[in-house]
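User: Just a sanity check before I run the rest of the batch. Below are the structure tokens for the first item. I only need the designed sequence back.
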């Protein structure tokens, strides 16, 4: 099979998945290096979302082309959990939307790489995000626009699970079902930690899948750190004609780095030079920004 826009040959799922595991770890270390540089960031969420982002962009799930960023038929991706910009920016750079050298300017004065994505500054960003609960409403608007125009492009949105505390998500979910937006896919980074503590200690989420089903979505759960499982899941979209899709991606906050895994303090954690070196060893990669 060949990607209709880029012309790149698409390898078998197992072969692609093996490469994507390594790419995701490169994204992880890149994001941590950026946070170390700026002394600000959201390391835990960057690490939990890296496999999902690598699969979408570097696994050629999204129909996008960095050489033609405003291609009308491109798929739209909304990074609703915009605070995890380190992983998002790294993914965009690895895909070729802008030079990797720019990652070294993360949050510097006048840098294009703000703490939260800004579509007016950075190639590849579809929507300004950061204030939580806005991404899904924007994504619903994108999917509805495609429906009204008779277009075939799809819309994907990545949310955090703590972000689902925001009621605007559920208003958008009702709208998506009302208009039968089966071109819309919500991916929940279900790492079970949000700012301050574990999600269950703030607002209980479970049964999360049943909640989305009650709002009219077709729901599937997947290991969010398994690129092969993610590729297989994305290949089945839409999951059911006439219903929006929800993928609950079970992840671990701080995935891949022993001192950060499943620790609420690493929602905002900033690695020291020693910790960054340890992370590089544990992840098995070396990224030079």
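Assistant: Here's the designed sequence for the first item:
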């Amino acid at each position: 099979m060949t990607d209709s826009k880029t012309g790149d040959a698409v390898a078998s799922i197992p072969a692609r998945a093996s490469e994507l595991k390594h790419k995701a770890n490169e994204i992880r270390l890149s994001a941590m290096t950026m946070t170390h540089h700026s002394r600000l960031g959201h390391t835990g969420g960057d690490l939990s979302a890296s496999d999902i982002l690598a699969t979408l962009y570097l696994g050629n799930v999204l129909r996008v082309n960095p050489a033609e960023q405003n291609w009308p038929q491109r798929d739209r991706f909304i990074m609703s959990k915009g605070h995890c910009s380190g992983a998002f920016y790294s993914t965009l750079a690895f895909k070729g939307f802008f030079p990797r050298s720019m990652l070294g300017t993360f949050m510097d004065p006048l840098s294009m790489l703000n703490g939260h994505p800004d579509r007016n500054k950075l190639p590849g960003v579809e929507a300004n995000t950061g204030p939580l609960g806005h991404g899904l409403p924007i994504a619903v608007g994108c999917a509805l626009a495609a429906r009204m125009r008779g277009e075939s492009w799809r819309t994907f949105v990545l949310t955090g699970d703590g972000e689902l505390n925001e009621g605007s998500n559920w208003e958008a979910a009702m709208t998506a079902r009302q208009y039968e937006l089966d071109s819309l896919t919500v991916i929940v980074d279900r790492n079970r930690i949000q700012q301050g503590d574990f999600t269950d200690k703030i607002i209980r989420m479970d049964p999360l899948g049943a909640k989305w089903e009650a709002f009219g979505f077709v729901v599937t759960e997947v290991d969010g750190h398994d690129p092969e499982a993610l590729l297989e899941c994305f290949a089945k979209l839409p999951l059911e004609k006439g219903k929006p899709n929800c993928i609950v991606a079970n992840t671990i906050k701080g995935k891949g780095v022993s001192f950060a895994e499943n620790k609420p303090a690493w929602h905002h954690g900033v690695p020291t030079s020693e910790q960054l070196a340890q992370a590089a060893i544990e992840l098995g990669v070396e990224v030079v920004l």
